[in-house]
Amino acid sequence: MNIDVRPRPEILDKTETREIAEALKDGLRSLAKAVAVITCEHEGQRYAMTATAISELSMDPPSMLVCVNKTASLYEPLSHGADFCINILCAEQSEISNMCSGKAKGESRFTVGSWLGSPLGPPYLEDAQANIFCRNVSKNFEHGTHNIFIGEVEQVLRRELAKPLVYMDGRYGEFASA
């Protein structure tokens, strides 16, 4: 095991920060993550974004956090308090992930998959592994290029016997039992 014992610099210069960011990206490539599409509706327009930077935050109250780049189309509606749904994708739904991660823009992101409206507000993917409907509690935290948005869970729909879509080392895969 290697332990770096250099003293921590007070301020990192831009070059060193970029180098650390690249090393971090490289280090995280081996971390398998579930793939989700975060959706919301704001002022009559639907938004969708593929994400792996999601996590449960608390079970009391049940809540989730999502990390959204400030340049993403989903950022503005969430920053204005739009409620959202975390649609956890199944192994066969990589094309939906691709559509919502840059292949398509705006409403065309909803042309693949069976998207339904919800009485709770945000659209949801009918055959996702799970749909987690969240009330945006407008407690968001800005850090660097991203904001963290917190949502209190209002409803969860779960599909039985669905294999999750996993993203690792720059590609999609499936979870295999040992």
Protein model, in words:
Keywords: Oxidoreductase. This protein is of the alpha+beta class. The chain has one domain: Electron Transport, Fmn-binding Protein, Chain A (Pnp Oxidase, Chain A, Roll), CATH 2.30.110.10. Helix content is 17%, strand content 39%. The strands form 3 sheets. Strands 2, 3, 4, 5, 6, 9, 10 and 11 form an 8-stranded antiparallel sheet that branches. It has a 3-stranded antiparallel sheet with strand order 1-12-13, with no helix packed on it. It has a two-stranded antiparallel sheet with strand order 7-8. Strand 4 and strand 5 (62-69) form a beta hairpin. The chain is globular, with a radius of gyration of 18 Å. It starts with 13 loop residues before the first helix and ends with a strand. The model has no long low-confidence stretch (mean pLDDT 88).
Strands, helices and their partners?
Elements: H1 14-28, E1 33-34, E2 36-42, E3 45-51, E4 54-59, E5 62-69, H2 75-79, E6 84-88, H3 94-103, E7 115-116, E8 124-125, E9 130-136, E10 141-143, E11 146-158, E12 165-168, E13 171-174
Pfam family, one: Flavin_Reduct
Keywords: Oxidoreductase
Protein name: Flavin reductase
